[in-house]
Amino acid sequence: MSTIELKGYSGEAYKFLSEAKASIGDMVRIEKDGEVYEGGLMPRSESGDDQHIVIKLRSGYNIGVKITPTSKIERTGTGAKPTFTSTSQPTSRKGLERIDIISTGGTIASRVDYRTGAVQPALSATDLYSAVPELSELADITAHILYSEFSENIAPRHWVGMAEKISEVISAGTAGVVVCHGTDTMAYTSAALSFMLRDLPVPVVLVGSQRSSDRPSSDAATNLMGAVAVASKAPFAEVAVAMHGDFSDKAVTIHRGTKVRKCHTSGRYAFRSVNSLPLAKYDLQNASLEILDQNYVQRDRNRKLDLRTSLEERVFLIKFYPGMSDGPIDWAIDQGYCGIVIEGTGLGHVSKNLQASIAKAIQSGILVVMTSQCVWGRVNMSVYTTGRDLISLGVIPLEDMLPETALVKMMWVLGQTKDPEAAKKILLKNLAGEFSQRTVLND
Amino acid sequence: MSTIELKGYSGEAYKFLSEAKASIGDMVRIEKDGEVYEGGLMPRSESGDDQHIVIKLRSGYNIGVKITPTSKIERTGTGAKPTFTSTSQPTSRKGLERIDIISTGGTIASRVDYRTGAVQPALSATDLYSAVPELSELADITAHILYSEFSENIAPRHWVGMAEKISEVISAGTAGVVVCHGTDTMAYTSAALSFMLRDLPVPVVLVGSQRSSDRPSSDAATNLMGAVAVASKAPFAEVAVAMHGDFSDKAVTIHRGTKVRKCHTSGRYAFRSVNSLPLAKYDLQNASLEILDQNYVQRDRNRKLDLRTSLEERVFLIKFYPGMSDGPIDWAIDQGYCGIVIEGTGLGHVSKNLQASIAKAIQSGILVVMTSQCVWGRVNMSVYTTGRDLISLGVIPLEDMLPETALVKMMWVLGQTKDPEAAKKILLKNLAGEFSQRTVLND
Predict the structure, then answer these.
(1) Helix or strand or coil: residue B192?
(2) Residue A345: which of B185, B374, B407 has the nearest Cβ?
């Protein structure tokens, strides 16, 4: 028995498995405290303890079973050994729609090879089928390795690259696009693609994972299955984010690209639609898609994509806080910035001492918009004197738009036009569901 | 009948009320669709419609009743006319604890006079008793008008003024302090007072209202009653925030001053404890206090307050975003800033292109700390290369501390010492519950 076959296991867990002659990839059956767990034996990461055995259930979900003195294990079948040597595409699946998966990096792309435990920087289609065999039943997948970046390093130029690649695969006739992305800045990217991909004919679904696939609680495989299913099946043609949605592990929530936010540093349920309902929910057990917001753009493969990737990067996001000086605003004016997004307090306020600099910025042609650091809710600058004063200076209130979406939209709008009046008009137009008609109480 | 007696009413509502000879302040009984509503007739704001009548129920809560052709009204009693001419304190309530209410401004202070509809800039004790008569059963109130500011204009110097005033009333023997404050920056102020008021002997409870008291849904009176009850009864001596807690209108939630955040621009339930349970819940119907976090600092009137108000205001809060240049960090170095709080992505990340400037800042003696823009969760900079790189540059991860609390604590710590090592030590010490032992899944 070579060492790779129990990669990551040590101590008690190693002894328990080697006595049953079980290797990574084998089907095993574990009995413990009257419960039975059956699935494929998975490798552990090097940082794992020596108490838990990780198996992949038929549902595609991984669980960790803590072994006890009374636990029993049986090897019930031989696992198909992973083949990660070939980079060729597998043969086309007849009768299934073509889905393109574009890998940009992040936990989902670097770790999804959970049967060998090897850290892969990106995914070929072969890797994907080996790692998540269920994908072969969902779609005929073409995989592309575009970037291999942690998402904190994804910059506006990468958004352009992604939009161009998506345009390319749409021209080649794809039925839907999945973009594997790190979770940290996924919501900024989904907003950027929402504006860049005008008149989208098919869905573009971003997907990531909050837990790497060598952890028992990984959401990598389930999120990916959900994303591929939505890209091939969904009736909408919008940019969306597919992520673990609740505590039950049975559903993936599909969020509109302009209304989603990462709201937890580490939880699997970190992604939330803010000030709107999610677009849909995909049930992994029944393979069914439930539409939650009927007001969507219909899929139409005959629609001609209008690709608009010009961006103006000189946009500054400022979060207001008590004691903040007007220095950062003056700095932005001096540096020739074109736009400032303020994350004000409450309904859209900042302190009086910033008014002079804000006025100066607007007079010098900078577009200044207001959002709220509250995260939930809508700015309303007509309730209090402070808001009315800021409006009279020319500050533009952005309703219930998220500050992150506002930043990205400003970059995009100022890439389309530098005329302040024309820019303001586009900014206030609801282009990709970034404004909600009314605030949904969803927190 | 003078016009003031139906202030704010017009059209149908005015006709309906004047036919019943009802005036503002009178007790009325409205029958509508089989339901009966009884309470004091309240004034409307100028922006109100002509369909609703606002009454104050015995519970202290206001409701708006939409009149219909079949509605009936009866005047059941004469209201005690408000007396807002005297500025003298009312006579001391025997047998009740002394509670000091310090008014700093905000919606709760400027609008709580809901029986006349007059906009008062601040509150005398007489005003308070007239507006919320229930207070006289809860405590013997001494009222102080310290500021009259919208909270977006509350600056660090006001935190110092509040801490000094609180120290003064504690020296005078108060049993608890209530601070009326605008909601926009209330959480920043509560964090500041949490650090400035060391060895607090009695509770300090900040209170505000999300809806002004001339609106049917106002939370002003109920929040104030909850705050006064907590200040006089609570077994803990901590800085807390008392705000409307749920949809039922029956409870006020008491949040720890360092763990609370305004999470909605306009909802009454806007305040949430983040990464921790609230301290307590006050039930308005039963006048009972339920402690939710048993791990609190006990009230002890013999404890000697240690007032430490020194602050260093040159602390910069930067929210990272894709495409951000290193310019703002270089600007802070040039301006002689002493501290930088970064709101990074996810577990505490920023893009590679900022590393050189961050290193330069730290080398020049600036304290740089990391928090997360996710709001919920804990930073963990040992999981990915990006985090480890930032740690090796000297960036200090602040666990589950809120960015707003981190900013305020940095100002306070750097006011106590300028030595980076000594400052780092105080920064990482849990002084006022700003760190939680483990992340509570409370979103």
Answers:
(1) helix
(2) B185
Check if the interface score ipTM surpasses 0.85: no
Check A319 against B343: CB less than 8 A apart. Answer: yes
CB contact under 8 Å between B327 and A324, yes or no, is: no
Encode chain A (443 residues) as per-residue pLDDT tens digits.
344 478 778 888 888 888 888 888 888 999 888 888 888 887 775 445 678 787 877 655 566 788 888 888 988 887 654 443 334 444 455 689 999 999 998 877 764 444 444 445 556 777 777 778 788 889 999 999 899 889 999 999 999 999 999 999 999 999 999 999 999 999 999 999 999 999 999 999 999 988 776 666 778 888 999 999 999 999 999 999 999 987 567 899 999 999 999 999 998 889 999 999 999 999 988 889 999 999 999 999 999 999 999 999 999 999 999 999 999 999 999 999 999 999 999 999 999 999 999 999 999 999 999 999 999 999 999 888 899 999 999 999 999 999 999 999 999 999 999 999 999 999 999 999 999 986 554 44
Query: Looking at the partner chain, which of B185, B262, B346 has a beta carbon nearest the beta carbon of A322?
Result: B185
Closest to B401 (Cα-Cα) out of B154, B187, B162: B187
User: What is the value of pTM for the model shown?
Assistant: 0.82
- Which CATH code fits B315-427? 3.40.50.40
- Which of B265, B346, B351 faces A379 most closely, judged by CB atoms? B265
Intervals of CATH 2.30.30.520 along chain A:
3-77
Start and end residues for every CATH 3.40.50.1170 domain found in chain B: 98-307
Q: How far is A213 from chain B (nearest CA, A)?
A: 14
Which residue reads 């509150």 in tokens?
B123
What CATH code would you report for B98-307?
3.40.50.1170
What type of residue sits at position B387? G
Nearest CA in chain A to B399: A265
Among B224, B204, B245, B41, which Cα is nearest to B134's?
A: B224
CB contact under 8 A, B351 and A443: no
Question: CA-nearest residue of chain B to A400?
Answer: B265
The CA distance from B22 to B76, in Å, is 9
Give Cα separations from B176 to A51, A128, B179, B200 (angstroms).
Answer: 52, 63, 10, 10
User: Is B386's CB within 8 Å of A262's CB?
Assistant: no
Every domain of chain B with CATH number 3.40.50.40 lies at 315-427
B3-77: what CATH class?
mainly beta
Stretch (H or E) spanning A156: helix A156-171
Spatial contact of B122 and B176, defined as CB atoms under 8 Å apart: no
Amino acid at position B359, single letter: A
